[in-house]
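Protocol step 4 of 6: record predicted structures for both targets in the notebook before any analysis. Target 1:
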Amino acid sequence: MSLPEAVEWFEAAREANQEKENPLPSSTKSKSWVDDTLQNLLDMIVQKSKGTNNYISGYRILTDAVKFHSPRRDKEVAEEMYEFLEKGKIIILDLSVGDLTIREKVSKQIADKIFQHSMQKFIDDKVPPNIVVYIEEAHNLIGKEMKLHETWPRLAKEGAKYRIALVYATQEVSSVHPNILSNTENWFVTHLNNENEIKVLAKFYDFEDFSRSLIRAQDVGFARVKTLSSPFVVPVQIDKFDPEQERQRIAQIHKAEAEKVSQNNQAAIQLLRLWAEEGDEQEQKETWEYLSQTLSEDRTSI
C-alpha cells in the first residue's frame, strides 16, 4: 500500500466511524474499533476536529520537527545511539540550532533512554557499558528549575551506579541544578567574571579561598582543580593539547618500556648462565638450553 493509498484508507475509516449509530465495531464487545488515540491521529491526518469537523492544524503542527528527522533512519535515534555506545563508539549530537523546546525534548529523550537502558541491564544482573555523557553549555539543558525525579538530576545522582559518567561545561554555575552541583565530584574552574557565580561556587569545598583570583586571573589554562582523590582545591596550569607532543610522549614511554624489558631479559640470561655453569646435573643443562633458546627467539615475551 502506497502512502497516498494509506491516507485515503484512513480517511475513509474516519468517515465510516463518524456514524453515531454504527461506528466501526471492535473485537471487544461494546467498544469502537477507533479508540481515542487512533481518533486523534485520524483527526490530525484530515485536519478536522471530531464531531464538528472544524479546521485544526493537524499534522502541520509537526512541521517544525521535520528538520530533526531523516527518511534514511529506520529506528528511533535514541535506540540507535545506545547501540553505538555499547560498541564503544563516540557520538556527537549537535543541538546548537533549532527550536529551543525541541532541543530540550530531544536531549531529555536521549538521556532518559541511555539511563533507562543501563539501569535495566543493571537490574537484569548484566554489566552496563561504560558511558560518558558530555554536555556543552550545560545551563541550557540542566537548569536549576528541574524536579529531582527528572532525567538529568537522576543521571547525576544515580548514573555512577549504572556506569554512566556526566561531564558538563558551563559559564553559569548558578543556573545549573543544585542537585547536580552537589553530586559533582571533579571540578575544573578557570575564570568567572561575576560575583553571583563566585558566591554559588564558594559554597563547595574550599573554592571560597580562590574567590578573588577567579575574578582577577585570566591566564589561559590556569585552573583550580578539585578531584575526588584530593581533599583540597589545587591551582594547576594546564598545557594546551598538542597532538604531536602527545605522540612523542607516548613513543618515549614505549621506548622506555622496551629498554626495560630488554634489560630484564639480559639479566635473566646472565642469571641462567651462571646457574648453568655452577651445576653439572643433566637436568640443569637441559633447562638452560631450553630457556636460552626461548629467550633468543622472543626476548620481549618476558
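Target 2:
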Amino acid sequence: MSRSLSLPASVVVLVLLGSPLAHAVDGVLEINQTCAEQTGCFPGDAPGFPVEITVEGAYRLTSNLAPPTLAVDGITASVVVKIDLNGFDVKGPGTCSGFGATRNCTNGAGAGIRLVSGANVVGNGAVRFFGDDCIAMASGRLHDVLLASCGGSGVEATDAVALDGAQLLFNEGDGATLGRGSRATDVTTQGNRGHGLSLGASSQARDVSALSNGRAGIEGLAGGVQLERVAVDGNLNGINVGNASQVSHATAGFNTAIGIAMGAGARLSDSTATNNGSVGMQVGARSRVRDAVSNGNTTHGFLGLGGQIFYTGVSADLNGGSAIDSPVGGESILQSVALTGGTTISGPFTEFGLNSCNGSTTCP
C-alpha cells in the first residue's frame, strides 16, 4: 500500500523558492542584505536593521550591508562574537565634506557595528558613512579594516583593543580611540577631524602613520604610552603623550604646532622633528633625550618643561628660538650635543663629553 506525505503549504513555498534565512557553514552563521531586510538572519534577529546577534559564535558577511537610515546600527551584538566581514562593505547613507580640521559628516545615532560586551574580533572589510562611530566596542581585536567617513570615530573602544592593519580615514571624530592597555600596529590614520590615534594609559603603537589630522596625530595623555617607528606629518600636534612615556624612531614634520610633546619622566630617542610650527621636541622634568635631531622648527629645537633633563647625542639647527631651552626646574645635562644656528642654549646646564655650540667646544 502506497502512502503520500503531505506538507504544509508554507513549507512547500520555502522549499520551492529558497529561504532567505542565513545558513551555517562550518558553524559560521551568514549575514547578508537579503536576510537582514526580509526574514532576519538567524534566531533572535527580527527583519530589518540592525542585524541583532544574541548568541555567541562566529559570523560571516556574504554580501554588502546597507542600512537605510542614519538612525540605526548596521550590526549589534550583546554577546562575544567573531565577525568576518569577508571583503564586504558595511555602508551607511551618510555624506561628508572637508578634510582634517574641517571634516564634517552627517550625524545620527547609528553605528556601523556596535559590540557592547566582551573581547570581540572583527576583520577583513570596510565600515563607512555611518552617523555615529564606524565601530563601537568594549574590547577585542580589529584587523585588516577600513573605517572611514563616519560621524563619530573610526573605532571607539572603552577597553583594550589590538588594532592591526587598519586604515582610519576622514572621520569627523578620532581615527581611533582605544582604551587602556591597547596595541596598534601597521595603522594609517589620515584626515580625521579629531586625533589620528588616541591611546589609553599603558598602550603601545608601532608602525603607525598619522597624517593631516585636525588634532594630534597620536595622543596618549594618560601616560605610560610606548611608540616605536611612527610618522606624524601635517597634524595640529604630531605626538602628544603624558608622563612616563617612551618614543623611539619617530619622525614629526610640518605639524601646525609641536612636533613631539611628552610629559615628565619621558624617554625620547632616535627621532627627528623638522619644520614644525612651534617647538620641535618638548619633554617634562627628569626626562632623557638621546640621539634626536630637531631642525628648522619655528621656535625652539628642544624645550624642557622642568629640570634634570639629560640630553645626549642630540643635534639642532636652524630653529627660530634656542636650540635647547630648559628655563625652569633645575640644572639639566648636555653630553655630546651639536647645536648650531642662533641661540644655542638657554637655561642652567652642566656639560659632559665633547659638545659643539656654533663651532665652540664650550656651550654658553
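Step 5 preliminary note on target 2. The first strand starts at residue 24 and ends at 25. The CA atoms of residues 236 and 256 lie 5 Å apart.
Proceed to step 6 after PI sign-off.
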